[in-house]
Design brief:
This protein has about 350 residues and is of the alpha/beta class. Helices cover about 40% and strands about 15% of the residues.
């Protein structure tokens, strides 16, 4: 029997997937979505939102996520409904109304549902955003997953993209937007001693940890960090490469155009933007494709923070509007669950930088 670390990861991912599906079901029960569909037979997200007085964009996300987990069926006309016998399996007719729709609906997305402190419920009903990690104490829990991102580049990308690795080998100035605690940037600095690195992140606590780590590693002569959002950068033709790792989808929609414009300005004329992120489906049928699972789940759980994922067409359209050219896309990882994009600075200049 195969028993290695990959096997163990796959097993854990199976448990994780069940947890995600359970959360989607619980939300559907709490806000009456599943019961309403059981009674009506089918409906669009907009109809459900009006009937239940809920925030339509989230109802749309919930329906598509439930479709991904086969909790709902759907069609290209925009209607969703329960698959046969699911209402019986969930006991929709047997459970009392307070359990279905009240505050005692069980674990829901990890948020607090104590009376008077229900930010998730307020978002689902009104669209009011939940404050995203307002305290420095949350930082240690945010970034552990980024520690091994260097392996994505060294084992999944560079062996097949020699040109990309060559840019680092020959020496360059690299900026990472959304650097967090600097794990990836410091790992790259250790491997490519002819490069100079700058990391920016709006989380001041994370940047403080990154600076301490750089000093401990003796890298402060080549690596520096700034506590600011990418939209507030004022670099001009300073970098050969800009890196955004699992960051593009985290940028609020109203900020995204200006941030990319500032990134464009920061690159020199031969500069290149590298983006590693989760792919997100653009068609309903693709919500059943396992390749998009991480993007679907991230969108569902991060929607209360105002985060909006872009599909491939939307991503590339935004890059082109900013002025980037020669856009490429390469699937990465087991099951192609990551996308790696490259985009080069165009020959022209941006005439207008969007205001926030």
């Amino acid at each position: 029997m195969e028993n290695d670390w990959i096997t163990q990861i796959r097993k854990i991912r199976t448990y994780e997937r069940g947890y995600w599906a359970f959360q989607v079901i619980q939300t559907g029960l709490r806000f009456g979505l599943l019961q309403t569909l059981s009674e009506a037979g089918k409906g669009t997200p907009e109809e459900l939102a009006v009937k239940l007085m809920l925030y339509a964009p989230f109802v749309r996300i919930w329906c598509r996520t439930a479709y991904h987990f086969e909790i709902l069926e759907g069609d290209d006309s925009g209607f969703f409904g329960l698959p046969p016998y699911l209402d019986q399996a969930l006991g929709l007719d047997a459970w009392p109304v307070p359990f279905r729709r009240g505050k005692n609906g069980g674990l829901l997305n990890g948020y607090s549902f104590v009376q008077g402190n229900d930010p998730f419920g307020l978002f689902v009903r009104t669209g009011k955003r939940v404050c995203f990690h307002p305290f420095s104490e949350t930082t240690p829990g945010r970034f552990p997953a980024t520690r091994n991102l260097i392996a994505v580049f060294e084992s999944m990308l560079f062996p097949y993209e020699h040109r990309l690795k060559g840019r680092l080998v020959q020496g360059c100035r690299l900026l990472e937007i959304g650097c967090g605690r600097g794990d990836l940037l410091l790992a790259l600095a250790g491997r490519y001693p002819t490069c100079r690195f700058v990391g920016v992140d709006p989380n001041g606590s994370a940047v403080g940890e990154a600076e301490e780590a750089a000093e401990a590693l003796g890298l402060t002569d080549r690596v520096s960090f700034l506590s600011l959002g990418g939209e507030d950068m004022e670099f001009l033709d300073d970098f050969d490469l800009i890196l955004m790792v699992l960051t593009l989808h985290e940028i609020l929609p109203e900020v995204r155009p200006r941030l990319l414009a500032q990134a464009y300005k920061a690159l020199n004329q031969q500069g290149e933007l590298w983006i590693l992120d989760y792919p997100y489906p653009g068609r309903l049928k693709d919500f059943r494709n396992p390749r998009f699972e991480y993007g679907i789940i991230e969108q569902y759980f991060e929607a209360p923070f105002g985060i909006v994922h872009l599909n491939a067409e939307e991503q590339e359209g935004l890059l082109q509007e900013t002025g980037f050219r020669a856009i490429t896309r390469r699937p990465l990882g087991e099951g192609d669950k990551l996308d790696f994009l490259t985009a080069r600075k165009g020959s022209g200049c941006l005439e207008n930088i969007p205001d926030l």
